[in-house]
Amino acid sequence: MTGETMHHQPSKRKRGEMIAVCSAKGGVGRTTLTVNLAISLFKKNIKVGILDGDFQFGDIGLALDLQSTFSMKDVMEEIENIDEFSLGNYLCSHESGVKVLPAPERPEYADLVTKERVNRVIDLLLQQLDYLVVDTGVGLQEHTIDLIEKADQILIVTNLEMATLKNTKLLIETLEVLGLSHKVQLVINRADMESVIGANDVKDILNIEDPIYIPNNFQVASQSLNIGIPFVINQGKTDIAKSFFRMAEQLTSRREISFIKEKNPNVLSKLLGFKLGKGGSYE
Ligand SMILES: Nc1ncnc2c1ncn2[C@@H]1O[C@H](COP(=O)(O)OP(=O)(O)OP(=O)(O)O)[C@@H](O)[C@H]1O
Ligand SMILES: [Mg+2]
């Protein structure tokens, strides 16, 4: 990523935001969501990276049809010699412009991954990026808990199947116990699929406000994964792609709002400081 044009907002460099994509059940659409969300964010002229946090069986490389030279294995082995700039050499550039750090090629290499090393990699990436979208392993295995704790936002993906909802509820409750519920955003994938439970009931079942809805379109979603071209690239007019563009809009506007909120105390402090004079005290 060194020497690249910084084509974009926000103009003030600020640590990027990490979004962890997780789910209580496998096969509900984490990888689909990760790649399509990342590219939708990138289309808004935002610097975006993907980290495949499914360290054993990650398939981001497949979903993006990447021929990468390096993976998380190499980064873990070289971590002592890697800095913010040299890390860029280990990233794979997807043709969309998104930077990707793929999972190790073999499941046993996941043993090289430690919380401290991954956190360091994430911190270095967030110095360069506005968003880092992380696909995690299924459920709450140790690596996934570490990633969830580190994340600024946790997207929990569910569908309308009874078993998925039951486990999603347990996942949400566990995150509540861990004190992480303020970071949680629920995403109901395949929201209009035929099911005994309607998408509208999910809010009440899971006790979650304002979920994001992604429509069901197996033909587009499945073909996209199989050919390794995220549908937001070449099927932008479909409802499923449009739902990702909306999600990207929603997530970025939320972040802009929090930027403004963060600025307010300073403005207020300055105003109060001005009124109170130098010796004045205020909270
Ligand atoms: N909105 C959708 N509509 C229809 N099919 C979908 C949708 N999202 C994902 N799928 C399909 O669901 C399947 C699983 O998707 P995906 O691989 O993204 O899930 P995953 O949670 O990453 O799975 P794993 O647990 O194996 O990593 C794929 O066949 C994909 O095409
Ligand atoms: Mg996956």
From TrEMBL:
UniProt key word Nucleotide-binding: yes
GO molecular function, one term: ATP hydrolysis activity
Pfam families given in the database record: ParA (PF10609)
Keywords: ATP-binding, Nucleotide-binding
InterPro entries per the UniProt record, alphabetical: P-loop_NTPase (IPR027417), ParA/MinD_ATPase (IPR050625), YlxH/NBP35 (IPR033756)
GO biological process, any: negative regulation of cell division
Protein name, UniProt field: P-loop NTPase
Classification lineage: Bacteria, Bacillati, Bacillota, Bacilli, Bacillales
